[in-house]
Design a protein that fits this description.
The chain is mainly beta. The chain has one helix and eight strands. Helices cover 12% and strands 64% of the residues.
Length: 154
Amino acid sequence: MRTKITAIVLALAVFSAAGAFAAGPAGLSAVGVYGSVGSNAGALSGATGLSFKFGSFPVVGLTYNFTSSMLGASVDYYVIDAQGIATSLSYFLGVGAFMGVGGGSFTAGLRVPVGLQFWPVKKLELFLSPVLSVPLIPAPTVDIGAEFGLRVHF
């Protein structure tokens, strides 16, 4: 029960903080779904999640990790966002933080997503992103994982 309450408070805090940095009248500029593999948020992943993009900052991810029964949240700032490589291909580089709770554990740390974005049609983004993560809690380590998904831009 305590884990569920913590997860709800965590989700509300992420959404409240995200609104402060929102772009445009409604604030939300993209929403999508994604999956992750490896260890990109402090725990070995088999996670699915929702992605919310507010301009370039923040890019918020909310996940459920099926391997560790952990709820997670990440917030990334894209230092480079949608820099063109070709007509429908671009890349991004970000820095951010993550936290996760569940299965009797808590993890938090830093992350560096680097990725490719493919735009098959205007306003539809498919992305693939290797993610370097540095969990600081419970113990400092260096991990790598990947995220893949799609976002619809408004």
